[in-house]
Amino acid sequence: MNKGRASDTAVFFEALASENLPHLQGMGRRQRHGAETRVRLFRCALQLFAERGYPNVTVEDITEAADVGKGTFFNYFASKDRLLIVMAEIQLGKVKEALALAEAGELTICSVLHRLFLRSAEEPGRSPALARALLASFLASEDVRRLIAHNLASEGRKLLSQIIAEGQRRREIDSRLKKERVALHIQQAFMGTLLLWSLEGQPALEACAEESFQHFWRAVATSGQGQKK
Questions:
Q1: Residues 191, 11, 13, CA angle at the centre, nearest 5°?
Q2: 187 with 152: CB under 8 angstroms?
Q3: N or C terminus: which one in the chain shows less Cβ crowding within 10 Å?
Q4: Which residues contact 204 (CB under 8 A, 6 or more apart)?
């Protein structure tokens, strides 16, 4: 990927964090239009996946919903599958952000992980149907499954392990625990919470994620660190 494409991708991911796209306000008109188009295609695709299921949505359905030409889609995404990989990359970006916060040292590790747990629920938490569609579609293609496993299960776990190690260094997390296992457990806690919430939808995913995080933290925290700061 060239430098220009990497910059455009960064803008795209940043824009996804806000419904109103405030980060685009300082950009030139052409660059802003391109970022807005990417966001519109991505969100329209997620909505259609939630309504119809991933296998039943075509590129033409997505471009029609986004009111753009089919060729425009391929300017931004190599295939429909690539939309799902974007979701994994967005989630991985949140883990990278959490690691940067941990390394900055201004927040407790508990606060860093708590923030990450809730931030990870933002996109799939839009609706139970969307969460179900995403979970199912991640397994619909072997290529997608492999790439998502690399981004989340492998790369994401390595980054989480670094956060856990920092928590152990600060004596917030029990030093007797293996950091790789703790990283795995936080991923399992989140994915299990997402799956169960997608089946019922009550209460809100944020509330379910909050409860799951508190149980996770009590299990790994050192004595006196059992409550979220």
A1: 5
A2: yes
A3: N
A4: 125
Q: At 189, which helix (H) or strand (E)? A: helix 179-200
Helix 179-200 vs helix 128-137: angle between axes, to the nearest 10 degrees? 120
Name the nearest CA neighbour of 95 among 111, 73, 117. Answer: 117
Confidence of residue 36 (pLDDT cuts 50, 70, 90): confident
Contact 190, 160 (CB under 8 A): no
* The pair of three-digit structure tokens given for residue 123, joined into one six-digit string: 């996109």
Tell me the pTM: 0.78
Cα distances (angstroms) measured from residue 210 to each of 24, 96, 113, 142, 217? 31, 21, 11, 32, 11
pLDDT, one tens digit per residue, over 54-89 is 888 999 999 999 999 989 999 888 888 888 777 777
Gap between the Cα atoms of 144 and 134, Å rounded: 11
Long-range contacts of 63-71 (CB under 8 A, 24+ apart): 66/37, 66/40, 66/41, 68/37, 68/40, 68/41
- DSSP letter assigned to residue 43: H
**Domains in the chain and their CATH numbers?**
3-76 (1.10.10.60), 80-220 (1.10.357.10)
